[in-house]
Amino acid sequence: MLFQLTSEQEMVRLMVRDFAKKELEPFSAKRDEKETFPAEVIKKMGGLGLMGMMIPPEYGGSGAGAVSYSLALQEIAYACASTAVVMSVSNLSTEPILHFASEEQKQKYLVPLATGRMLGAFAVTEPDAGSDPGSMRTRAETRSDHYLINGRKIFITNGSHADVIVVIARTDSQASNRGLSAFIVEKGTPGLIIGKREEKLGLRASDTVELVFDDCRVPRKNLIGREGQGFKIAMTALDSGRIGIASQSLGIARACLDEAVSYAQSRRQFGRVIGAFQAIQWMVADMATEIEAAYLLTLHAADRKDLGESFTREASMAKLFASELANRAAYHALQIHGGYGYTKDYKVERLYRDARVTTIYEGTSEIQRLVIARDYLGK
Length: 379
Ligand code: CAA
Known about the structure:
This protein is α+β, with helices and mostly antiparallel strands.
């Protein structure tokens, strides 16, 4: 169990904190308001090695590992939760390629993804297949040298900006979960159409779109692994993705705590700063304690991943606890701000909106509980 960061991990944290403070923090409110995708910042983050943190150096990545990745993502989310989800999903899209793709696919896609020259997305969810991806209907039919993909994916983060999309589609209509396969679909592939763009409550600077596949012609060589491996590939990627969302949640929660503390130390009522009242102190104490617990859960899951141990249960625990905490922290931070917190003049208004989705995407809290409970009780 890891309690002390290595000097390298500490360095990553400080470097990203400094970067986020200069490059993200001053612009995040405006980006949220205007729904501006952080394309230029993402390129800079690529240059710093933040877009391929799990990718080893031979494929252009920093190979920094999951603990460093979590620390970096926490810092990015602290400054801008929208940018954090862009980073998280692009890093997530590298996992199926890293662990299941051929050498040729790795050479072709990992290097540009790792350096931020390409952005990645991950397309699983469909209108009738959310928590239950095994029921997806998007199908990929074999033709001579290619697959024809038809169907719709929704809520795809980075969807309209991504150069590389890992798409899960059905290759066998009889085989439920085992009938799914994973494909690399490049931007501009004929038949890939960017559909409805979602207008969201939070994370408004991130890109969330529908993807329509209309006789989308994907070369056979873009199949990842073997036919039928798609569900396993998606689940493996989501295990890592959940460490990412736990880290994003932690960044948001920390920002809530800092905003709450600073407001409580300056706002005066009844002749004293409100931080002098026990009602406020207890909210701050609970937030701080839960953040510490979520931090340890998250780094524990990340550490297991770095050690090559199984981390499915630990990632679900971290994601469940950290995302629920982010919502509680946002609620209390806004409560401490009173009426001011409900206005756009204060950062907590955005944090409150940004926190909300963390208990939903990459597996709802209910799905995380199911994963954890199955680990103890069986299916
Ligand atoms: N790693 C590897 N393999 C796994 C696995 C894991 N974590 N979890 C399950 N599997 C394997 C099982 O071993 C099983 O293999 P066999 O067929 O060989 O026996 C197979 O997958 C089927 O497993 P289950 O029977 O457990 O599958 P299930 O249908 O009961 O579903 C579930 C399990 C955990 C509920 C899963 O469906 C799930 O995680 N649902 C949530 C989906 C989700 O998170 N969606 C988010 C979409 S992405 C997103 O939000 C991205 C974004 O843009 C931000």
